[in-house]
Amino acid sequence: MADPMYRQIADDLREQIESGQIEPGQQLQTEIELRERYDASRNTVRDAIKWLTALGLVETRPGQGTFVVTKVDSFVTTLTRKEGEVAEGGQSTSYLSKVGDSLEPESKYVRVEIQGAPEHVATRLGVPLDTEVISRHEQRHVGRTPYSLQTSFYPVEFADRGADRLRSSKNIEGGAVQYLRETLGIKQVGYRDWITVRVPNAIEADFFKVATDGRIAMYEIFRVAFDGNGNPIRLTVTVLPADRNELVVNVGDVPDLRHATQNS
After folding, report:
1. pLDDT tens for each residue of 57-99
2. What distance in Å separates the CA atoms of residue 31 and residue 229, rounded to the nearest whole number?
3. 47 and 27 in one domain?
4. Could you list the residue range(s) of the whole structural domain that residue 13 is in?
5. pTM (2 decimals)?
6. Which of 40, 68, 96 is the C-terminal boundary of a domain?
7. Looking at the chain, which terminus has fewer C-beta neighbours within 10 angstroms, N or C?
8. Helix (H) or strand (E) holding 124
9. 220 contacts 198 by C-beta, under 8 angstroms
10. Is the separation of the CB atoms in 110 and 137 below 8 Å?
C-alpha cells in the first residue's frame, strides 16, 4: 500500500534536505508553488510541512515562510565554578562535540539604560519597586553563532559612588566583579541561580533565528550575586536557547567535563 500523498511529498523534500540539495537556512518553495509542483491540495501540502516540522527538519516563521532548520553545534555551559573561584561567578562554556575546549562568548552589542526596577528586578535586588537601576543589555555570540542574551542590573547608587563605568556602553575590562571590588570595595562572595524554561518572545526569536511557537524553549537564568554581608549587589538575567545549550552544575570534588565524558 502506497504512502499517503502528504508523506510522499514530505519524503521527497526530506531527501532533498538531507542530501544538501536544499541547504540549511534555505527557504522552501511557497505553499502555492509546492501545490503546483506536486499537483496536490492545500491541506496535503500543509500536512507534509507539518510532518517535516515534527521531524525537526523545517520551521515556519510567521509572515516569512518555511525554512530548513540550521543545526547548531551545542554548547555546554557550566554554571558553577570550582571551590575558591565562586567569588568571581560567571560561566564557562565549551562545545559539546569538543568538551573541554574553552570558549569565550563575545558581546557584539551593549546597550545601557537607566530605568525603574520592575518587580522581578526589585524583588531580587531587595529594593523598592521602581528604584532606579542601571541595566546593561548584551547580545552575545560564540564565533558567528548567537549564544545568549544577557542583561545585568545594578543599583544606580553604585555609579553615583564612583563606579561610573557602569553607565558606559563600553565593555568593562576585567569584568564588573573586579571593577566593583577595586572602585567601591564591594566583594562578591557568592551567587544564586534561579532557572526557568519558557517560550521565546519576538525579540529572542529574531536574534536566535528560531520560531516563536515554543518548539525551541528558552532557558532563563536569574543570577543574584551577594557581598559578604548577604546583600544582593547584581542581578544578571541570561537567556539561552535550548537547541544549542546544555547546562552543567558541579557539586563537590568531580573530574572536569572532558574526563567525565571520555569515561562515560
Report:
1. 888 887 889 999 877 667 888 887 665 554 444 555 554 455 4
2. 62
3. yes
4. 5-68
5. 0.73
6. 68
7. N
8. helix 119-125
9. yes
10. yes
